[in-house]
Known about the structure:
Blueprint: E1 2-3, E2 6-7, H1 18-29, E3 35-36, H2 41-46, E4 52-58, H3 64-75, E5 80-86, E6 94-98, E7 105-106, H4 113-123, H5 136-141, E8 146-151, H6 157-169, H7 171-175, E9 180-185, H8 190-195, E10 205-209, E11 214-217, H9 228-239
Parallel strand pairs: 3-5, 4-5, 8-9
Antiparallel strand pairs: 1-2, 4-6, 6-7, 8-10, 10-11
Amino acid sequence: MVYLGVHMKTEYRGQRNVRAIKEYIDILINNEVPILTDVTKLDEIRADKNHRCVMGFFPSQSHEMFQAFKKISGVFHKQCYFYAFINDVQQVPIIAIRDTALGDEVYTGQNDVNAIFSWARENCKSLVPEMNFENAEEMIESKTPLLILYRNSTDMESVNQFTKAVNSEIRDFIQSNGIKAVHVDGATFRNALRFADMTMEDLPLIQIDTFRTYNLLTNFTEVLQSGNLRKFVKESLDQSGVELKDEDRKSIYLKLQPSSKRYSFMVDSARDEL
């Protein structure tokens, strides 16, 4: 998909009907960045634990950096929340990403749209994004091994702890495209839990699914101990190529991969649901 001359490298994943597609296009065409005038609102934005937030501080909406910021917000609107703070006292524009678990990161590159775009592409997407029904198809279809935190609906503290562990222990696996770390609401993915003989009472727990086998780490506190998450991931990846003797350890998410008819308006009634 091309948006304002920029290749978004994503495809439409919503409902396959005219109304849903039109609504999606309208969002892109009418893209507006929320403008903040009250600095106290920044604390509320920092408290949003589901998405990374990109904040821009500009002297005016006519500033060239604001225009670049607005354009980029349309490209990455599904990955980050964008907010602008306008104050004529702010002579030097500042752009920063706010992340509850890992802290803030300030853009220090050149003041042009291409440089900001490259920075946003590398940093906008959360290190551990939430997987839900809307984006699960995209997450699963590459069959990149999934490291999944199952949590209770209101438990975001485990997401922060898990994100910090992923950042310190296995960031290199993610950067080399060897694994994809996500968190999910266990209530939403209760069927996947059921396949692993787990229930909501067992949360939080961590599962790695290589699309051949899966392993569970049910003692979540072990994640906080240095080296344990990396050991768990490495052993699971090493074992994924070994002949599988335990039929019960066959991949859960291989059963839940996207429908072969996802590019049509046909219904695939035989596919398991998440």
